[in-house]
Amino acid sequence: MQLHKSRHQDAVERIADWIIAGRFSEAGTLPTEAEVGAELGVSRTVVREAIRTLSAKGLVRARPRHGTAVRPQEDWHLFDPQVIEWRMRSGISHDLANDLIDFRLAIEPFAGQLAAQRSDFPTDDLQAAYEHMVAATESDGAYSDYYAADLDFHQTILTGTKNAFIHHLAPLIANALRLSFHLSVFSMDSARASLPMHKAVAEAIAARAPERASEALTTLIESARGDIFLVLNGAGGSGRS
Predict the structure, then answer these.
(1) What is the CATH number of the domain that holds 64?
(2) In this structure, is the dihedral angle defined by the CA atoms of residues 79, 12, 183 and 93, taken in order, positive or negative?
(3) Whole-structure pTM value
(4) CATH number, domain at 193?
(5) At what angle do helices 123-139 and 143-160 cross, to 10 degrees?
(6) How far is 220 from 241, CA to CA, in rounded Å?
(7) Structural domain harbouring 51
(8) 124-176, pLDDT tens digit by residue?
(9) DSSP count for the chain of H helices, then E strands
(10) DSSP 8-state assignment for residue 197
(11) Do 58 and 76 form a contact (C-beta atoms < 8 A)?
């Protein structure tokens, strides 16, 4: 069973790599299951299951009697962690970066406002997440420690709103946050530069100042946009997230 799963995952990754590399044009058609299976050294059943997985993620569309068509990147499911990884490998465009930041701006500042209005918001949890961010930058440890603390910081705000819809969006938004962090935080120096803005957010929520919390998050996210564009344009940024 484990071997079958490994073959399935390997087939998914290999076919995705072909698509990312531009082996097939958008709206082009993949080879037949038999041809793909022969190239990958797997059965048609494994290929068929891999195509189902890629179809569910928006990369391809199986068309009866017409083959499997490659879909444009705009159709890929960006809330899927594996899809985000593939998009990173294929290169991030300025348009996608703008869409990412605009999506965050549509959710997070309002979530910060709601969080600051709640007397039961877990301010201690938010402060702990911030302190873990600080500790990660002071230890010069792995970026993963900082990313995890940063994600915890932002998710604490989202779930702390106690809004049922925002709460259930949190796992999906987490994937957008991971992509944003990866693009805007590219060194421990850049991570350290983000700390004062995160502190301003935490302090505004702790002070029960909704407008200030919304403004602090807007400033933080817009700064991340600037850093992402500096990276995309080949320069270094200050590393907000």
Answers:
(1) 1.10.10.10
(2) negative
(3) 0.80
(4) 1.20.120.530
(5) 170
(6) 7
(7) 2-75
(8) 999 999 999 999 888 765 677 888 999 999 999 999 999 999 988 888 888 88
(9) 10, 2
(10) H
(11) yes
